[in-house]
Amino acid sequence: MAKAIAASFLVLLLAFPTVFGTDHDVGESAGWALGTNYATWASGKTFRVGDNLVFKYDSTHEVDEVDESSYNSCSSSNSIKNYKGGNTKIELSSTGKRYFLCPTAGHCAGGMKLEINVVAAASGTPPTTPSGTPPSKSPSPPSESGSPATNSTSPPSPKSSGAVSVSSGIALLVGSAIVFAFMA
Ligand SMILES: [Cu+2]
């Protein structure tokens, strides 16, 4: 039983990022604070259009989005946008470089700066479309109710609407539940 639960969780974990985009928790458990190397944090991660950056920080910090030269000089005087409040989610809506720093005096120089490169949403990779079934191991035919194996083609527009994403997510949920039912 526990194995089945773990397996269905795995299915969810594998299936969902391809549908909803990924929330990247900046600095992981350390959050947005002094003492973390954000270049190290960002290296090896892939930031895609549709993903989000999530900054979590205490009241001594803020988040400024800046341009490249301000980033390099740790200047927040020309910031593109300022965020405060401790929990900031920034949607990565287009490709290209994004630059962030903490405008509190000395904090950027102390390491609170983050540069990322946003790439296109899953371009050229297979799991773009939600048309496939979840990686179900069961060879049995699709069952009666709520089968996700509708083989629908992907939405015509590259920017899938929220409604499509949500319904795909529900389909995946149902699919996972079916996998779970077979394994239990
Ligand atoms: Cu700070």
Automatic annotation (TrEMBL):
Gene Ontology terms for molecular function: electron transfer activity; metal ion binding
SUPFAM superfamilies noted in UniProt: Cupredoxins
UniProt cross-references to InterPro entries, sorted A to Z: Cupredoxin, Phytocyanin-like, Phytocyanin_dom
CC terms in the record's Gene Ontology section: plasma membrane
Biased composition (Low complexity): 143-164
Pfam family, one: Cu_bind_like
Comp. bias (Pro residues): 127-142
Domain Phytocyanin: start-end pairs: 22-120
Region (Disordered) location: 123-164
Keywords: Copper, Electron transport, Glycoprotein, Membrane, Metal-binding, Signal, Transmembrane, Transmembrane helix, Transport
Leader peptide range in chain numbering: 1-21
Domain of life: Eukaryota
Residues spanning the membrane: 162-183
Transmembrane helix found in the keyword field: yes
Name under which the protein is recorded: Uclacyanin-2
Species: Cajanus cajan (Pigeon pea)
